[in-house]
């Protein structure tokens, strides 16, 4: 039996537009981001790829994107599950920093190591920093501590229990699942699904607002290549993410 999984990165956020490192800071969608989410929903409806259940992070930009996309796919009524384990990678002390300024200050090598290396996290954020999540009520009771920084490796380690424990059972129950999350949490999931190496994952960027569809076998392995519902827009969007900072 084939299982259908849809991955959707949130539409443009206020801090994507401003070119700031975002991570766990809870910024909203821009008008363009809302339009991207709408288009994502329309693409699902037009192409008949319709989710039965939605999983999102606990960050507003993913929740807004899910609501808008599902509304435009006539699927606002499906069950919803949310988890901090689908959150964006915590960007540590870089949260709130301008990407272009960070590149100019630290140089390309360090900048890319922080953004795209597999296991080098950015410096830890001070818990008193205005962009730390200390005392944020949505994280009361999360297992362990609120992170002070995360590498992609750490993201994968905290995401996989949710993937195995909550998403895979929905897929195995025959549901078409949509996961609405973030650039780096989805990079982690794609790495896991496709067995991409620690080095090669650096080059993978996920565009905002375009559904990416996987057909999976019973072992949750892709049966073929994944497909974006708008491949041209996805290629342009991924290139734009790759060049962030260089403007
Ligand atoms: O700032 C962030 O949280 C992420 C996603 O917007 O950025 P990057 O693509 O640089 O990892």
Describe this structure in words.
The protein is an alpha/beta fold. Helix content is 39%, strand content 11%. The chain is built from 8 helices and 6 strands; from the N terminus they run E-H-H-E-H-E-H-H-H-E-H-E-E-H. It has helices at 14-18, 31-46, 60-72, 99-106, 108-116, 152-172, 183-194, 231-242; strands at 3-9, 53-56, 80-82, 177-181, 212-216, 227-228. The chain has a 6-stranded mixed β-sheet with strand order 3-2-4-1-5-6. 2-phosphoglyceric acid is lined by residues 16, 21-23, 88, 91, 115, 183-184, 241, 244. Catalyzes the interconversion of 2-phosphoglycerate and 3-phosphoglycerate. Belongs to the phosphoglycerate mutase family. BPG-dependent PGAM subfamily. It is an enzyme of class 5 (isomerase).
Summarize the helices and strands and which ones pair or pack.
Elements: E1 3-9, H1 14-18, H2 31-46, E2 53-56, H3 60-72, E3 80-82, H4 99-106, H5 108-116, H6 152-172, E4 177-181, H7 183-194, E5 212-216, E6 227-228, H8 231-242
Parallel strand pairs: 1-4, 2-3, 2-4
Antiparallel strand pairs: 1-5, 5-6
The structure holds 2-phosphoglyceric acid.
Overall, the morphology is: globular
Secondary-structure element string = EHHEHEHHHEHEEH
Characterize the main sheet. Answer: 6 strands, mixed
As for the CATH topology, it is Rossmann fold
Bound molecules: 2-phosphoglyceric acid
Which residues form runs of ≥5 with pLDDT under 50? none
Domain unit count: 1
Round the Cα radius of gyration to an integer and report it.
Answer: 17 Å
Summed over residues and divided by their number, the pLDDT gives a mean of 96
* Count, helices: 8
Distance between the termini: 47 Å
Structural class: alpha/beta
């Amino acid at each position: 039996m084939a299982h259908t999984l849809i991955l959707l990165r949130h539409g443009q956020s206020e801090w994507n537009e401003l070119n700031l490192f975002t991570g766990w800071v809870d910024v909203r969608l821009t008008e363009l981001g809302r339009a991207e989410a709408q288009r994502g929903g329309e693409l699902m409806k037009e192409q008949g790829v319709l989710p039965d259940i939605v999983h999102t992070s606990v960050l507003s930009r993913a929740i807004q994107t899910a609501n808008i996309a599902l509304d435009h796919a006539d699927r606002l009524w499906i069950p919803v599950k949310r988890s901090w384990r689908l959150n964006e990678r915590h960007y540590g002390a870089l949260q709130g920093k301008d990407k272009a300024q960070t590149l100019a200050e630290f140089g390309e090598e360090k900048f890319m190591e922080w953004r795209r290396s597999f296991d080098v996290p950015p410096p830890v954020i001070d818990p008193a920093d205005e962009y730390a999540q200390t005392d944020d009520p949505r994280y009361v009771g999360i297992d362990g501590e609120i992170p002070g920084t995360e590498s992609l490796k750490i993201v994968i380690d905290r995401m996989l229990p949710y993937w195995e424990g909550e998403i895979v059972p929905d897929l195995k129950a025959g549901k078409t699942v949509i996961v609405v999350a973030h650039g780096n949490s989805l990079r982690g999931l794609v790495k896991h699904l496709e067995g991409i190496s620690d080095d090669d994952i650096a080059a993978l960027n996920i565009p905002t607002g375009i559904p990416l569809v996987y057909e999976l076998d019973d072992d949750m392995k892709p049966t073929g290549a994944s497909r974006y519902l708008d491949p041209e827009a996805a290629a342009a969007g991924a290139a734009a993410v790759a060049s962030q900072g260089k403007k």
